[in-house]
Every structure is written in C-alpha cells, then in structure tokens.
Design brief:
Largest sheet: none
Length: 196
C-alpha cells in the first residue's frame, strides 16, 4: 500500500509539471525567477539530503527526484525563452541562503539538519510567487498547484501508513508539498472572490 501511494503521488507530480510546462510555453503562467531558480538550487541539495533522511529509500524519494528534474527542465526553458518575471530582492536573499545551506551540508555532512533548513527556505521561496500573484505581476492557473498538493498528500499518507518514527521525512511533503503548493491556489481563489 505504501509503495502504491508513493508511486501514485510521483506519477501525479509528473502530470503537474507537464501541465505547468504547457502553461509556461503558452504564456498562461509566468514563473517567478527567484522561486524557480531557488527551487533548482535547493531541490538539487534537497534531493540528496532527503534521500539520506528516508534511509536511501528510492520509493520514498522518487517524488523528490521527479520534482528536481522537472524544475530543472522548466527553469532551463524559462531562462532560454525569457519567460521569467523580474528578479526581486527577496529572490536574491533566498538564493544566497540556499547556497549557505548547501555549503553547511557539505562541511558537516548532516543531512537531517540541512534538509530541515531547506524546508524552511523552500517554503519561503513560495512567497515571491504569492506576492507576485497578489500584486498582479505574475499569472498562474490553479490546476498544477492543486495536483501538486494531491501528489504530496499521497506521499504524506504513504509515510504514515507504515510510520517508522522518522518524523523528519514528513517535513518536505507537509511543509512544502501541501502548505507551500497549497498557498498558490488559495491566493488564486482569493483573487477570484475579490474581483466578484
């Protein structure tokens, strides 16, 4: 059951990024550079630290690997095609902190502390997108963000089905998968209600 949930969540995440990539190519979504470049840097580090946090379990970490490769593809496309919005000061700060955490991880080899610190930075990295949407600088559609919440909810349930006492493995799917991704549809719903 646990592996079925993990693989289902990972497959849903593949569709999330396919849908989002299509929206970027058609101009329906405007990626925030700080969010996506920060995600690229952080998710690269996060992919390997999370793999250690879940005791090198490929099924538990599949969703993170898929996320990293998909983020890399969308970021590269957006950079090449000039689809990014302007870089804000908070974006630069988040990038700098991400690099510091990466250096900390390399120096200390403490995957758990590094991964938990990354979860905070990843969550904060959703804020430039949220602010950009609220200020009307960015545009997004809810479907990929909502599907991402579903994918990470499946991941969270899978980790709880046979809970092994490793609380750290829940930080990524709950903080960023559910709360971080969930922030965007909430803002989109708020904006829609406000315009009525």
């Amino acid at each position: 059951m646990e592996i079925v949930l993990q693989m289902t969540g990972s497959i849903v995440l593949v569709f999330v990024y396919i849908i989002y990539f299509k929206q970027v190519t058609t101009g329906e979504s405007t990626p925030n550079p700080g969010t996506w470049i920060t995600w690229f840097v952080i998710m690269g580090i996060n992919t390997f630290t999370y793999f250690r946090v879940v005791d090198d379990n490929y099924f538990k970490s599949a969703i993170v690997f898929i996320g990293f490769f998909s983020i890399t593809a969308i970021m590269a496309y957006s950079l090449i095609k000039g689809r990014f919005a302007k870089l804000a000061n908070i974006d630069i700060v988040l990038l700098a902190i991400s690099i510091v955490i990466g250096v900390f991880w390399q120096l200390t080899e403490n995957a758990i502390v590094s991964n938990l610190a990354l979860q905070i930075i990843i969550f904060v990295s959703f804020l430039p997108t949220a602010i950009g949407l609220l200020k009307g600088r960015l545009k997004e559609k809810h479907l990929p963000w909502t599907l991402a919440v579903i994918a990470y909810s499946l991941q969270t349930i899978s980790l709880l089905v046979n809970y092994d006492g490793n609380l750290y493995q829940l930080a990524l799917p709950v903080i960023n998968g559910i709360l971080g991704n969930g922030l965007i549809p909430i803002i989109l719903i708020y904006k829609k209600l406000k315009t009525r």
